[in-house]
Structures are given as C-alpha cells and as structure tokens.
Amino acid sequence: MNRMSKALAAIVTAGCMFGTAQADTLEIGVLLPSPIADVGWSHALNEGIAAVVEKYGDKVNVSTIENIQEGPDADRIMNKMIGDGHEFLLLGSFGYMNAGLKLAQRNPERTFLHASGYKTAKNFSPFTAKYYEGAYLMGMAAAELTKTKKLGVVSAFAIPELISTINGFTLGARSIDPDITVDVIWINSWFDPAKAQDSAKALLAGGADILFSNAQDTPSVVTVGEEAGAYVFNLNSSMKEYAPTKYLGVVKTDWAPFFVASVDAHLAGTFEGANEWLGMDDDVVVVEDWSSDISSDMMTRIQAMHEEIASGARHVYDGPLVNQAGEEVIPTGQRLEDGAILGMDWHVEGVNSPLPK
Amino acid sequence: MQFKLDRRERASRRMLLLTPLLAVLLSVITSSLLLLILNKPVGSTLHSFFIAPFENFYSITEVFLKFGPLLLIAQALAVGFRAKVWNIGAEGQMIIGAIAASSVPVYFVDSTSGWLLPAMIALGAAGGMSWAAIAAWLKTRFNANEILVTLMLTSIALQLLYYLLLGPWKDPMGFNFPQTVMFQNEALFSPLFSGVRLNTSIIIPIIFTVAVWLFMERHFGGFKLVVGGLAPQAATYAGFSAKKAVWVSLLLAGFAAGLAGMSEVAGPIGQLQRSVTSGYGYSAIIVAYLGALNPVGIVFAAFFVAVLQIGGDVALVSANLPISAVHVFQGLLLIFYLATYTLVNYQIRPLRHASSSTTEGQPT
Predict the structure, then answer these.
(1) Is the CB of B322 inside 8 Å of chain A's CB atoms?
(2) CB-CB contact of A63 with A86 (8 Å)
C-alpha cells in the first residue's frame, strides 16, 4: 500500500515537472506551402526560424509542417496545432489567411505571423518584404550588362508584392538607360518548373538577354539563364550554384531579425499585430552574390544607391513616376504612398506586357 | 512447399468482405515497418491515425466533414464502375460544380435571399452533370475512351477555375489575389454546432446513399445498368441499352461530384479559390473499391478513409510525420486491397504432385 502511494506520488511529481517544463517552453508551429528544399521561399522562412532556435535553444520547441496545400486541410492542420498547444504560429503562405485570422480571433493570447497577406488583428501580423528595393539595384546592374536593352521576367501571380518588384526592377534599369524595356510572363504558380523554363526560353527568344525569376520556388529560370548565357537573378535565397557563371545576384530575404524580434515581443507580452513591411533598413532585404562581371564603377553607384535607399534618403517610388499609358502618376518631388505600393495594380512605363486583368 | 492460384467457381462472398480488412491489416503492418525505418514511434503514430480522430468533439465533426463528400462521390462512381464505366474525372466534375454554384454569390454579392443556397445546389448539380455529359456524349457518339476524356476534362476544369479567379471573378478588394469574395452567410450551409465546420450539407450524401441503395439493390433499372456495362451485346438482345448505362453512370457521377464541390465552397471554404476539391474526386475512387462497389460497404469505406485522412493530418502535427509518409500509407492501402482482391476470384492451394488428378490447372 505504502509502496503504491509512493509510486503514485512519484508519478504525480513527474507529471508536475513535465507540466512546468512544458510551460517554460514556447511551442512554435510553422506551416509551409512547399517542401523546405535547398532554395526558395520555404527554405528562407525555415532559415529565419532556425535563428529563433539558435537564440532561444531549449526554450523553444519548433514543429514544422511543410508542403501543405492551401485549403480546408491546411485549416484543419492549423486548428490541430492550436489544439496541441502551439503558442506562436508562423503561417507561410497567403492562402492560409482567412482561416488563420479566424483562429487568431478565437485565441487572442496566441501570436500569429502570416506571410504575404493584407489582413491584420491584434495578435495577427501579415509580413512582406520590400523586394522592390533590392530589385531596383538589380535593375541598375542589368542595365549595364544588357546588350539588347530588353529584360525578361518570369513571374508568379499578379499580386501587388510582385508587381511592385517588377516596377522597382524596371525603374532601376531605366535610371541608368531609359531605352530599356521589360517583358513579363505570368505563369500563375509559385512552383511549376516546366512552365517556368518554357517561359524563360520564350523571353529569350523574344530578345531579352537578362532574366529575373520573380518568386519562383524552383531554379528553373536560373538554369535556363546559365545554359543560354543570359544573366539571371532571383528572390529569397541564393541560386548561384545553378548559374555559376551567369548569376547576377540575389535579392535575399533574411527573416531572422523579424522572427526573433516577434518571438521576443511575444515572450515579453508586448506583441502588437501590424502590417509588417520590411526592407533594407530592417536587414530583411539583403542583396548579395553580385556577379563579378559588373564594373567596379557600377558597383560603386549601386552601393551608393543601396545606402540612400536603406537610410530613407531616397525611395524607389520617388516621382516622377509614369505608368504604362504614359500618364504621370506622381510628379517630381513627391513620393508614392505606402498604401499605393501595398496595393499596386499598375505597371510603370517601360514594362511592355499588359497586366492581366 | 509450392502454392498455386486456382480460379474459384464463383466469386467468394466471404473473401469479398474479408479483403478490405486484410488490406487494412497488411498496410498497418507494412507502415509500421516503414515507421521503424524512419525512426518514428510506431505506437503514437498509429494512435494518431486511428484513435486521435475520435479523441475530441471537434475531430469527430471533422471526420464527418470529410466523410460527406467522399461518400457522395464514391456512391455515384461505384454505380458507374459496376456498369464498367470508368469515370476517373470526378475531380473535374467537382470543380465545375463548385464554379457553377459560386456564380450565384459572385454575381449577387449583396443578396440575402433565402433562395441563394437552393439556387447554388441546383447549379452545382447541373454544373457537374454537364461536365460529365461531355464525356458521355464523346463515348456514345465517337466511342472515345472515357478514362482519358474524364481525366483530361479535369485539367480543363482546373484551367477554367484559374481563369475565373484571375480574371472576371477575382475579389475586387482582394489585391489581385486569385480568389473570389467571401460568400455571405445566406450562401453558406449552417454549421451543425457552433464552432465546428460540419454543416447541414451532410444530409445530401446520406439521402443520396439511400437512393443509390434502393436503385441498385431493389430496382430493375440498377440491374439493367450493370448488364448494359458488363455485356453490351447481351444487354442489347435483352432490350437494355449499353449507351444508357454510359449516360446514367456519368450523369449520376457528375450530379454527385457537382454537389460535393458545391458543398465545399458553401461549407468549409466559404469562397471560390484555387484549391476547392481536397482531392476528393480521386480519393472517392479508392473509397468505391474499398467498399467493394456496394452501397453499404461504401459507407464504411468512406468513414474509414475519412478517419485515415484526419488521422494523417494529426500524424503530421503530433507525430511529426512527413506528408509523403501519410500519402504512402494511404497508397499502400489501395495496393494491398487490389492485391488481396485476387482472393475473391482465386484461391491459394498447395501444389501437390499430380497423382490421381489429370484435370489440374496450370500453376500460375
């Protein structure tokens, strides 16, 4: 009898210890739309989370679920993560928005970060990168290296985030050479190697000699560039190994500072949901792996522009801005409002392709 | 000792009932081995798959949420399969059903009429049927293979969906994201309980199941349909039409799949978006066969597959299983079922030295 009660006591104590251990550990749940792989979007998000683990060690426990298609099943998985006690959720795709927001409203004490969306709540922050800042610099480099004065973009969806990136790229290129034009092919997919390849080849056949792989989670466009001898760059994570000689550079996203800051805020109880729109001055947009074929003169100009944009002295969307129809949108001396960039649904002059309507 | 397969004189009814159980058992054993290789805890993973879906009320309602469309589509497909009409494109018919139904809330954004939902039901069913009718017409008119036609029509349906979402039906306030407006409450089925996604649309598959059961088991039309598909010439002599078997099978599947698509957009999704089917159109094929193409068997099979899918989601989160492992497990089930199904028509006998019998069949 005595022995039994001792055993019981031991079990209860162990249970309590287990309980406290649980309470001290922050359970982080990560939901990703594609396989983590070696490159691309999910890879970049995963690297950001790795930085959180590095900082907090045993105090955080991360469960990552990759390759989950947007839709009712993703909703259920999120729900299950909440049920399993995850306090901090990172939802890695636009399509998780509506269900994620509902969960956030029902669980006000938990924190949600949501990629690429536009809805916000007290404990629900959408986050996007100001890719256009980096793309502007890439445009400058492309302007120096192009011979045909035609640049080609293979792009995922015609959403503001990607439209503003193409516009930034175009503005950067035309700041060096106003004769340059840009062709865009929208393939309506984040991950479709065959379509991305075909589109890249079509752009080259149309006269482009520089390629921009806009939000493609596959190195397909980069590989085509290397094979055809056209300079190429992409977003999110470096794909230099796929184009060792023709890699122009990468507009990388380093989510680590933002994720770490968000976890800090969550633990301190000071998290405030906001539309987090992060750029060079947040150290989230990082441009690197520059091609050695860019002249040192141009690199100096690019570095100078980099500092001006990061410091806020200059903005990619400073006037004058002219749209595809040739109408002035913003006059000299004025700057396009943030809201207009976040909801951008028009192309600047110099982009040949019409925007899908 | 060697064994051989002997053809049975008639299909074994006992084996027909046993094969699904055997398939489940074999896939559990094989997956356990795979889990051991993956270095995942076997016990807790199996727990995730088979027990966790029943551990709380929410999970149970989610099982039924999955059960509905699986049951609905599988019942209709099974009718066709029994008549040897191979409709592999329920997925496409489901997409068109979802599109047709969504046209109502997309064009009547501000309406709060009580007719929204009935109109969506009617259009969803009509949409699915019209898509299936293309395949039926091509089959009966040009003898075009319905496996290929229905499968390819699914790709076309998907492109149509993408076109609408990127173009005319895009939510004007949605920042160009490929999705429609969120539907108003009047265009949605009401949840059965507060806080869950299971909704009143669950009665559709139940009514449909009863209707199919009555038609196939109690009605002469069901028999004619099966004969029309199995033996077209015999059917013609008997005055049954093989063409009719094709039309009935495909239209019925289109009807059911269209309704299933409608129930998804007017249920858990609440808008038209790029992924509306959750793969039901394909999973339903597995369900139809696991249920031995029998209306009652399919009820159990649909429930089982629903549990397996919910369990798979749980295993992703709780047992940290990769999603491909979940798919492997679900695939094993079908493979083992098809393999063990051999035992319905054949039996395994030890191969003895022929001493007296000279009529022994060829060892296989």
Answers:
(1) yes
(2) yes
Q: Can you say how many angstroms the Cα of residue A162 is from the centroid of all Cα atoms in its chain?
A: 10
Interface residue B159 vs chain A (CB under 8 A): no
CATH number of the CATH domain containing A151: 3.40.50.2300
For an interface test with A, which of B166, B176, B277 has the most A Cβ atoms less than 10 Å from its Cβ? B176
Determine how many CB atoms are found less than 10 A away from the CB of residue A350.
Answer: 20
CB contact B167 to A (< 8 Å) = yes
Considering the domain boundaries, does residue A275 fall inside one? no
- Give the ipTM of the model, two decimals please: 0.70
pTM of the model: 0.79
In a domain, A158, yes or no: yes
CB contact under 8 A, A65 and B178: no
Question: Looking at the structure, do residues A158 and A105 belong to the same domain, yes or no?
Answer: no
Strands of chain B (E only): list them: 3-7, 346-350
Q: Does residue B33 sit within a domain?
A: no
Give, for all 357 residues of chain A, the pLDDT tens digit: 455 455 544 444 444 444 444 457 999 999 998 888 888 899 999 999 999 999 999 999 999 998 888 888 888 899 889 988 899 999 999 889 988 998 999 899 999 999 988 889 999 999 999 999 999 999 999 999 999 999 999 999 888 899 999 999 999 999 999 999 999 999 988 888 999 999 999 999 999 999 999 999 889 999 999 999 999 999 999 999 999 999 999 999 999 999 999 999 999 999 999 999 999 999 999 999 999 999 999 999 999 999 999 999 999 999 899 999 999 999 999 999 988 998 898 999 999 999 876
Within a domain: A98: yes
A331 in a structural domain: yes
A188 and A292 both lie in a single domain:
yes
Answer yes or no: do A77 and B56 touch at CB < 8 A: no
Chain B, nearest residue to A84 by Cα: B318
- Contacts (Cβ under 8 Å, ≥6 apart) of A247: A222, A226, A231, A232, A233, A239, A240, A289, A291
Is the distance from CB of A78 to CB of A69 less than 8 angstroms? no
Task: Provide the 8-state DSSP code for A275.
Answer: -
Q: Do B273 and A95 touch (CB under 8 A)?
A: yes
